[in-house]
From TrEMBL:
One of its GO terms (molecular function) is acyltransferase activity, transferring groups other than amino-acyl groups. Residues 1-153 form the N-acetyltransferase domain. Transmembrane segments: none annotated. It holds the Pfam family Acetyltransf_10. It comes from Shewanella cyperi. This is GNAT family N-acetyltransferase. CDD domains: NAT_SF. The lineage of its organism: Bacteria, Pseudomonadati, Pseudomonadota, Gammaproteobacteria, Alteromonadales. InterPro entries: Acyl_CoA_acyltransferase, GNAT_dom, N-acetyltrans/Recomb-assoc.
Length: 158
C-alpha cells in the first residue's frame, strides 16, 4: 500500500470511492432530504475543485494503483474527508492517512489544532485518532454529525 499526495487526476477515483461509501454508511444516519446534497458534494467536479483550492488530500493506492483510501483537510485545519474502502478497513489505513495529512498540515503552519464533523457511526474512529467531542450530536437541516477537535500539540509522546 502506497500513500501519496492526491493529484487532480485522482478526482474521479476519489469520488468513485467515497460516493458509494457515503451512500452506504453516512446517508442512513441523515435525513433523506440531504442525501443528494451530500453525495453531490463528493462528485468528481467538487473533488477537482477541492484539489485545486484550499484543500490538501492524500490517497492510499494498492498494488494495482487503485485508490482504496483518501484523507483530505481544508485549510490545513479541518479534516474534511477520511474514507477507506470496506475491504481495507481494520488494518490501520485510516490512521496512516490521517497521519499523512496531519503531518503536512503541521508543516504548513497548523499549530496542532484540528477539527472534524464526524458522521454518527464514525465517532469511534476519530476517538482512536485522538479527537474528542466539542458538543453532542448536531442536526443541521437534516445533516447529522458530531463536532470534534484534536489538540495535537497536547498529544506529545502518546
Amino acid at each position: 500500500m502506497n500513500i501519496r499526495k492526491a493529484l487532480i487526476d485522482d478526482a474521479k477515483a476519489i469520488s468513485e470511492l467515497i460516493v458509494p461509501l457515503t451512500a452506504k454508511h453516512i446517508c442512513p444516519t441523515c435525513d433523506a432530504s440531504v442525501h443528494s446534497l451530500l453525495l453531490h458534494s463528493m462528485s468528481v467536479g467538487k473533488i477537482e475543485h477541492y484539489l485545486s483550492t484550499n484543500h490538501f488530500y492524500v490517497v492510499a493506492v494498492n498494488l494495482n494503483d487503485e485508490v482504496v483510501g483518501v484523507a483530505g483537510v481544508r485549510d490545513y485545519a479541518h479534516l474534511y474527508h477520511l474514507f477507506v474502502d470496506d475491504n481495507h478497513q481494520g488494518k490501520g489505513l485510516s490512521r496512516k492517512l490521517w497521519e499523512a495529512v496531519k503531518e503536512e498540515s503541521l508543516r504548513n503552519g497548523n499549530s496542532g489544532r484540528f477539527t472534524v464533523n464526524s458522521a454518527l457511526n464514525s465517532e469511534n474512529v476519530y476517538l482512536r485518532l485522538g479527537f474528542r467531542r466539542t458538543e453532542g450530536v448536531r442536526n443541521r437541516e437534516g445533516m447529522m454529525d458530531i463536532p470534534m477537535v484534536l489538540e495535537a500539540a497536547c498529544q506529545q509522546d502518546i
